[in-house]
Amino acid sequence: MDPDTFEALANGLKSNKTITIIDIRTNRFDAGGVRALGNSLRFNQGVTEVELNTNKAGGEGAEAFFCALQTIRTIQKLALRRYDITSSSARMLVDALKVNKTLTELRLQVNFLRDGGTQQLAEALKVNNILTTLKFYYNFIGSEGMKAIAEALKVNRKLTSIHILWSRTDESGIVALAEALKLNNLIFHY
Prior knowledge:
- The chain is α/β, with parallel strands linked by helices.
- About 45% of the residues lie in helices and about 10% in strands.
- It has seven helices and seven strands, in the order αβαβαβαβαβαβαβ.
- Strands 1-2-3-4-5-6-7 form a seven-stranded parallel sheet, with no helix packed on it.
- α4 (about 85-100) packs parallel to α5 (about 115-125).
- It is globular, with a radius of gyration of 16 Å.
- The protein starts with a helix and ends with a strand.
- The mean pLDDT is about 90.
């Protein structure tokens, strides 16, 4: 999708009250397109689900959207599979999750968050009491990331489903997670 087309779509969404799901996977729009979408969703009162999977907007695009997510009041489900989330954009996502009051499901599969990004995400999970489902498999999470998630799960009682497949943790990460699950009865997919 070329930038002008995407800009027109984003502008049309500002006042539209009937569209509830936006699925624009694999359109290869740039950071400017994602910024325009985020800005339009600040005004939109109907969209509850956004699929931005496999769009190569890069870290700049992700940062722009996550900044907008701090003030977007309607999105309940957000899918960002294969979205090239960087360490810097992960920080912006964490900031958004700390203040967003509507997002209940977040899908971050195949973003290679590794330990650093996972530790940042865990920080947000400690204070977010809205998110119920987190899917972030294929992110190559090591022991330190898994321990950070375990610590977050000790205090987060709202999260009911978490999907962590293809991690690279060792026994210490699994033990930490097992201890956390004794305190938290969520549905866990490993």
